[in-house]
# Entry
Amino acid sequence: MTTLSIAMLGAGRIGKVHAAAIAATPNARLVAVADAFVEPAETMAAEHDAEVRTIDAIMAADDVDAIFITTPTDLHADLIEQGVRSGKKVFCEKPIDLDVQRVRDCLAVVAAEGGVLMVGFNRRFDPNFQTLRARIDAGDIGTVEMVTITSRDPGPPPLEYMMRSGGLFKDMTIHDFDMARYMLGEEPVAVSAFGSALVDPAITGPIGVDSAAITLVTASGTMAQISNSRRATYGYDQRIEVHGSAGMARAENLHGNTVEVAGAGGYTRAPLMNFFLERYMPAYQLEVQTFVDAALDGGPVAPTGDDGLQALIIAEAATRSHLERRVVDLSEI
Amino acid sequence: MTTLSIAMLGAGRIGKVHAAAIAATPNARLVAVADAFVEPAETMAAEHDAEVRTIDAIMAADDVDAIFITTPTDLHADLIEQGVRSGKKVFCEKPIDLDVQRVRDCLAVVAAEGGVLMVGFNRRFDPNFQTLRARIDAGDIGTVEMVTITSRDPGPPPLEYMMRSGGLFKDMTIHDFDMARYMLGEEPVAVSAFGSALVDPAITGPIGVDSAAITLVTASGTMAQISNSRRATYGYDQRIEVHGSAGMARAENLHGNTVEVAGAGGYTRAPLMNFFLERYMPAYQLEVQTFVDAALDGGPVAPTGDDGLQALIIAEAATRSHLERRVVDLSEI
Amino acid sequence: MTTLSIAMLGAGRIGKVHAAAIAATPNARLVAVADAFVEPAETMAAEHDAEVRTIDAIMAADDVDAIFITTPTDLHADLIEQGVRSGKKVFCEKPIDLDVQRVRDCLAVVAAEGGVLMVGFNRRFDPNFQTLRARIDAGDIGTVEMVTITSRDPGPPPLEYMMRSGGLFKDMTIHDFDMARYMLGEEPVAVSAFGSALVDPAITGPIGVDSAAITLVTASGTMAQISNSRRATYGYDQRIEVHGSAGMARAENLHGNTVEVAGAGGYTRAPLMNFFLERYMPAYQLEVQTFVDAALDGGPVAPTGDDGLQALIIAEAATRSHLERRVVDLSEI
Amino acid sequence: MTTLSIAMLGAGRIGKVHAAAIAATPNARLVAVADAFVEPAETMAAEHDAEVRTIDAIMAADDVDAIFITTPTDLHADLIEQGVRSGKKVFCEKPIDLDVQRVRDCLAVVAAEGGVLMVGFNRRFDPNFQTLRARIDAGDIGTVEMVTITSRDPGPPPLEYMMRSGGLFKDMTIHDFDMARYMLGEEPVAVSAFGSALVDPAITGPIGVDSAAITLVTASGTMAQISNSRRATYGYDQRIEVHGSAGMARAENLHGNTVEVAGAGGYTRAPLMNFFLERYMPAYQLEVQTFVDAALDGGPVAPTGDDGLQALIIAEAATRSHLERRVVDLSEI
# Structure
């Protein structure tokens, strides 16, 4: 097989991103689209010369090698299980589920079936973060001691979305937890998290926060600090800094352009790229390419389902830490 | 007409760039390819679902709205004339010709035929340089007084190419002359140029130089300085800085990534993007889109044939200035 | 009175810094020096045209308006009390004492005597941090939401010093706690701290750590994150970043020089200034000037003894948090 | 001799700078001051515990080892000659004279007397430019090929001053000519200069320009470009960039502080340090220290009188180039 035939389950915003990335991937082809709503499914299918099908038809189809799950979160685990049971290679957007036990059960099914599952932590494929990781691997900063992640969205999603997303830690910080694991190179064992509703006072409920400061610590004593906000007036703030025994390496932000204007008021550069799709487009492209290549070669995929589980466990612990105002050992979860 | 049908005359390196840009332009389609060599023509045609045709067949074809001229330079002027006489809209790579009088004659034909001609000064479409120009237009730096252009290639082209390219000023600096005109907003009236063979002593001949320092001055006394080299170990150095009565604006270089590593030896960032195709890919894309939109709308195109002529006149004057070690008035040319 | 006559109690490293700053302060004069060791006292006295005296003689002297306490920490509180009882204006290096209750008792004496006490948090006088604070006060970033402090020493002090300094939190982080209070503009109510011995495994004992990640939270939910290490190969890393409702402001590091060298390996800038005396010399100068002006004018001094107490309370809570691996409310202390 | 006794000839602005630098130099002492006006002389003398004397008394004095000449330019050459004839070591502000022949005659006297003369090109002592030169000497960028100097004052001096200063090239650019020589490591042989009155239309006369673009070229073909303006709204713009066969090195500007503020309008840093005294204070200090050390040791001083002459020759050639709109060989002067 030289071309991977893919079906898209979910034709919403992130589905479109992946469909475009598939279109730009030489050895991949979108063949089918399923969505609960007819119109977006038909639009995507038309644009990519694919067919609208039901999920069951896709699962049963011989001409579909792999599925991309970009539906609402509550369907993810079921579709993963159905996919691997149908022999499809599976790419699933994060998170697998908001409930840790449900994820464990799902991964047990994947393992039992010998299935292939890749979880959509797109930031691992950002060329700058990959370069950062490569410099660490090359020994440029010695042994990793402290990871500092600044992750601040340009603006909050709709209030309704935030209220039912599982909370900031499972919805937004989960990306940072994955990056912390990726950069630390060692599993965290405890977490301390503080959250506040500073951006929008309308956010309520036990985990209704839009700003957070989180610390992770590993068994060897290395640490990670994460700074989150749902609002950054100057753009999408995405930085990682890693301190090691021999030095420091960091990946800086991407500005909208390279122009700087100087006058009596000082030197002014452009704000940051404002939108995650613009900021991480090269990452989405590389993510799809990586999945496609691995699916065709039969090689291992990463980030794995277990990566998804571990990040969720940290998010669950962070939520508990925030709610109970205490340090939470991950072994509790 | 909602889609522009295009024929590519020349299937070499820059032809491929434009073909790829056409493929990514929604309202354009490559329908035919001509090249003196069969294989590259067939490869490009196959990749883009186009036909290999002779130039004469293309000129006569009803299904070709526009031609892209990416052949060797010595064919440009003839093909432009043939194109406009055949009613094709014409995009031509710079320069139109190395001889000023030949360009004047060619433009007379274009004018007589009421033809459409756009010249490929890709840098005008670089998003950063466009932002720089926009800030000037917005009055952020007041009246322009001095333009400083740093334009240094990562490495020299083949010696043979350099020896028959018309020399550094017509081959490489011509881009900078166009940017100087674009940023000055006023025509230069005189030029002083110094050139040296510092990179490769094998460059010989009257204009065999690979390094240069050039100054342009306008009637009102505004100035432009250009710094050129065929070699920059740290990547493709492309900067423009504009000083005005109220401040300064500049477009900085693009580095390969955003990672910085700090250690006992200091803070190190990545070299610059190394290759003009990588550096200017967004510019090539926007250039093609601009041509296609104008061709479909019947609107004016820019940079025009006259822009090509003016840059060549400056290049000719710079060559003369270098050879005769004197300030040359453009009115001489 | 137009010139403040000062006695230096302690002729060690930091005493010398203050003596030099006094020498450069037009309206101040060093008149006396006391130290347990004869030689450093005589050297300092000779250099500044001052007299070596005993502490008791200084306290009783009519020609001494103010004292600078730069002795070992365990003498600070006693000397403060003796000083204010003798009617001297007092400048004391941080910390007042390692024991919170001792500090409270000392401040009670200062209050009862109506004494003047300024505590040496030199970073408040750094021109860059003052500019940062001024931009916040000017409303440039709206309401403060998150403060991020990176504070990493170029290298550890002698092991013996570290073991008896009260630990990282009271010795080193105490500066950052003061800066966090200064930038937050609101008192922290709880702290979570993690510490590790990553730099030097020879550090032992209950609070023998050389690396730390600390989070502070206030009643309104604003947060501060602090990153500490006793080692930074690239120089003395001192940064503060403040996020607010309307934007972000930060004070960047100071490099050793402004030179950048570019080559095939990238762009390299100088390491940071390596030593706290070099980095904070302008701050020490401004600190002394501020104390002298206030002492002469009879105006209030800041940072006050209470600032010293509050930072120590946070350091005590951080120590407890680290040791007991839990979030500690400051009201416990 | 372990301390150099110095007399200041001229108690104006630059005289004060040097007097302060002398005061901060351990092995130097200001003993006498002369000025045509009584008050500034007395003020400086009082401040530095020196005596007001006549120039003749200073020249005849046994207790004066060296003189600093900071008078108006037209007295420089006479005072240098009188100084060396009186056996004084001489430090003289640039330029030695505005007339090339007068300088040659003066240097002949210095040589005949075996006198010591250092010329005040303060920028050679700027720590950043010295680091830049050191990196070149260390071979970090290979063989020097092109030097680019950006030298733009924050605002013009009084019109009257500009009209009688010998013109921009001899008054302001002369510093850049010296830096070009310092960085090129090879003598220029020709110059091309363009000047305009863009800042203040009231500047008239044959060399009444306030903006300029100059190119120097050496016998081996290396080049230097200089960009000048009497006005820069964003502060005192002082940059040098050097390209070599193996890379590029540059010394960047100094900003007023390190704070950057980010908001919807972008990222804004402080303007540059605005004043040459602030910008070059460390250079003035090092310059005086260097002269004092050499005077005491009997070692050679630099920049020499010949350095002053060479820079003036280039300035004369640049003036001629501007006025006659042609390339001028330095051998003409």
User: Anything to note?
Assistant: The two ends of chain B are 42 Å apart (CA to CA). Residues 17 and 96 of chain B are 19 Å apart (CA to CA).
